[in-house]
Amino acid sequence: MKQGGAFIEPPPLSEREFTGVQRLLYREAGIWLSPAKKALVVGRLSRRLRELKSPSFSAYLRRAETDGTERVRLLDALCTHETHFFREPRHFEFLEREVIPRWRAQGETGNGEPRRVRVWSAGCSTGEEPFSLAMVLRHHLPVSEGWGIDILATDLSTRILEQARQARFPVEKAHEIPKQYLRTFMLRGVGSQEAWMKAGSELRELVRFQRVNLNDGHGVVGRFDLIFCRNVLIYFDQASRAQAVERLLSHLSPSGLLFLGHSESLVGLGSRMRAVMPTVYTQRSSTGVPASRG
């Protein structure tokens, strides 16, 4: 750390203090830090200690335990937020080739109500995932044909959610987006904003952002046709992972699909789900492709 032209060493992090951070993060978020993450804790919390003029990690932990706002800031700092547009392309190919054509073939609901698709992006980070989903769904399910789309994007981090709400991304990320979607849905900045691009209003109106802690699941209402929870469960231990999966499944429609990350699975987490392709699951009684209903 640098202060007043001089580098200031962060205070040392003792094993007892690291254990305190471990326990707080696990209790609040279900995330278990391995001992190998000790340097990460120092790196991500030292700046906050300096801002608060906290003399030690023990003093900072005492503050975080009694101050809910500071506890949220601690969680924000320690949670990893790495994401890309159209990450794990096979999932989006599956939506385009299998799921959406089945929805369209099912046609009208039969009662004259608009057809609506509900999606939950759990662990949405800076917003690339929910906006990728919005592009695919709006392209194939246009509003002119009566399709309604509702995407709930949630994350534990209030700081990251505020960034995601801006729907503003470095233009270097443009190469991650298929050209047809890039031209249709993204706006290139000009002048002082030329290094940025922004999701157009047609996308922004489809996505709503909300802070949700998967460790308790409060705040999510209703059931979803698609739930994306990718590269989130890898940070949980077996017990908290099983609890998080149960909360996700409680919000999955009877014929809905749950998408996990490429290194995640439901093996050992219950038998009521079956894989329709690697890392994509549906309930055993369903066909594997959910029906869209108003």
TrEMBL record:
Pfam families: CheR, CheR_N. Its EC number is 2.1.1.80. GO terms for biological process: methylation. It comes from the Bacteria. Transmembrane segments: none annotated. It catalyses: L-glutamyl-[protein] + S-adenosyl-L-methionine = [protein]-L-glutamate 5-O-methyl ester + S-adenosyl-L-homocysteine. PROSITE patterns: CHER. GO terms for molecular function: protein-glutamate O-methyltransferase activity. It is an enzyme of class 2 (transferase). Residues 6-286 form the CheR-type methyltransferase domain. Coiled coil: none annotated. Keywords: Methyltransferase, S-adenosyl-L-methionine, Transferase. This is protein-glutamate O-methyltransferase.
